[in-house]
């Protein structure tokens, strides 16, 4: 199918209320120790071919479709913190045919031992591949994501820390994240995992990076960059 135009619009939505205090630091809403936020993402599609008149995107005007809705909740009090994200994708039909689905994207609680050492327990991002950075460069994500090697969320425990100029991440995942709501069954989730008769379980992940800083004079800013030395993911 050929498209003459494709536009993705990302809009952050904020709930306004006199009882809520808006936080500019997180671009979210503060309620005590909680920060609430979310997003709506829509696609504008215009199809240049005119053979299928039943398609709502045909013709010169095109159509806007809701692509994704999400809710984010962050928690922070002293050294205890947590993160929750739930996503809903409308698809192209109803829930019965598997195109409508929703799932938990992130759900973990953690503890900051100090300014550089943190532990997370729950559904968190596996420290392997380009994590979430490579997939953000394209609306179609990338090939690593579709084989489960990038931006993968699993259920487990993860420890992150720094010493000297090195940053390390150690993690253990007894299983993948739970299934969401939809007719896709075990495929109803954010990340791409091995499903059906095969299951991801008892995985160890490790990452070691060298951390350096670069001063940019004209921007009066210090940038931190990471050089990856080691990455490991294996089943035990």
Number of helices: 1
Strand content: over 45%
Largest β sheet strand count, sense and barrel closure: 12 strands, antiparallel
Q: Kindly state the percentage of residues in helix.
A: under 10%
> Pairing-aware structural class of the strands and helices?
mainly beta
Rounded mean pLDDT is: 75
Q: Low-confidence stretches at least 5 residues in length (pLDDT < 50)?
A: 1-26
User: What is the CA-based Rg, rounded?
Assistant: 21 Å
The shape is: globular
> How many DSSP E strands?
12
What is the H/E string? EEEEEEEEHEEEE
- The termini sit apart by 44 Å
Keywords:
single chain; 236 residues; mainly beta; 12 strands; globular
Q: Which helices and strands appear, and what pairs or packs with what?
A:
Blueprint: E1 3-11, E2 21-23, E3 28-31, E4 34-47, E5 63-77, E6 80-89, E7 101-112, E8 118-125, H1 143-146, E9 153-163, E10 166-176, E11 201-216, E12 221-235
Antiparallel strand pairs: 1-4, 2-3, 3-4, 4-5, 5-6, 6-7, 7-8, 8-9, 9-10, 10-11, 11-12
